[in-house]
Design a protein that fits this description.
Length: 284
């Protein structure tokens, strides 16, 4: 089936669809740059799943921009956005593609309000499982760690000031909407945050191949049942020595095969799974 002409309606009359102004598109393009995102506290999200999860967080989605030649746009999502009072505007497909970070964009871009909170707010209450990304530079890794934290029931994700921007398009996409599910604190100072974590009753464990203990040892001993902050270091050099001294201990992931190492986000998934399993029911 051929795509509709841009002069034909693409959604039902119950949804108010206005042409995207040049000002709207210029503002969207500016959000591709870190400095501009921080200035206005807004960022772009793309894709049905990510935008659907963003819409569940009230007040997060400020505007939707859709490609005006698409016949595959999700009417349920657009209806949800319209009912929430979100402005929906249509733009030529090449203009929408400019705002997208994927090779084959879905023709749907959301302008969102940033969602991060201060570290003390992220650690408020009685958190039992938190992950801190220290100097993580790959946006795909960071986004996937956030997704894993969400999957295993973590209470918050903290990101150091030397890490990649969580609002980077690749990071946002890698979270698959999980960034809208749990508290995120960014630009944190490790020393200050470790102090706050201990006051909140969390033990502070660093993931590192040189650790004298393994995650299996801690699981068997029952130590993983305790509220825990896992600190994950940089993909290339791990945790710097001056940061290691701030932690309670380093914990290694046992490697039984011949691979030299595994991806940071994969390792984070294993550590988080082990803690979540221990906290939600003892190992047999």
């Amino acid at each position: 089936m051929e795509a509709l002409s841009r002069h034909e309606p693409i959604i039902n009359e119950a949804i108010d669809l206005a042409p995207a102004s040049q000002g709207t598109l210029r503002s969207g393009r500016r959000l591709l740059r870190h400095k501009e995102r921080q200035l206005v506290r807004r960022f772009l999200a793309e894709g049905r799943q990510t935008i659907s999860e963003a819409l569940r967080r009230r007040g997060t989605v400020l505007e939707l921009i859709v490609a005006d030649d698409s016949i595959g746009l999700p009417l349920d999502l657009l209806t949800t956005a319209s009912n929430a009072g979100v402005r929906i505007s249509a733009a030529p497909p090449d203009a929408v593609t400019e705002l997208a970070a994927t090779v084959t964009p879905q023709g749907l871009i959301a302008v969102c309000q940033m969602v991060d909170v201060p570290a003390d707010e992220a650690l408020a209450g009685n958190p039992r499982l938190v992950v801190l990304c220290d100097q993580v530079r790959d946006p795909g890794n960071l986004g996937t760690v956030i997704r894993c934290a969400d999957a295993f029931g973590a209470d918050a994700v903290l990101v150091s000031r030397d890490s990649v921007d969580i609002y980077n398009a690749k990071a946002v996409r890698a979270t698959t909407g999980s960034m809208f599910h749990l508290p995120l604190a960014i630009e944190i100072d490790l020393a200050d945050t470790v102090t706050m974590a201990r006051k909140a009753g969390l033990q502070v464990l660093g993931a590192d191949a040189s650790g004298p203990s393994t995650v299996d040892h801690l699981a068997r001993s029952g130590e993983l049942t305790q509220p825990t902050l896992w600190v994950m270091g940089n993909e290339a050099w791990g945790l710097p020595p001056e940061h290691v001294t701030l932690l309670d201990r380093l914990v290694a992931l046992p490697m039984y095969g011949r691979a030299e190492s595994i991806n940071l986000s994969t390792a984070a998934a294993v550590f988080l799974y082990a803690s979540a399993t221990a906290q939600n029911g003892p190992y047999s």
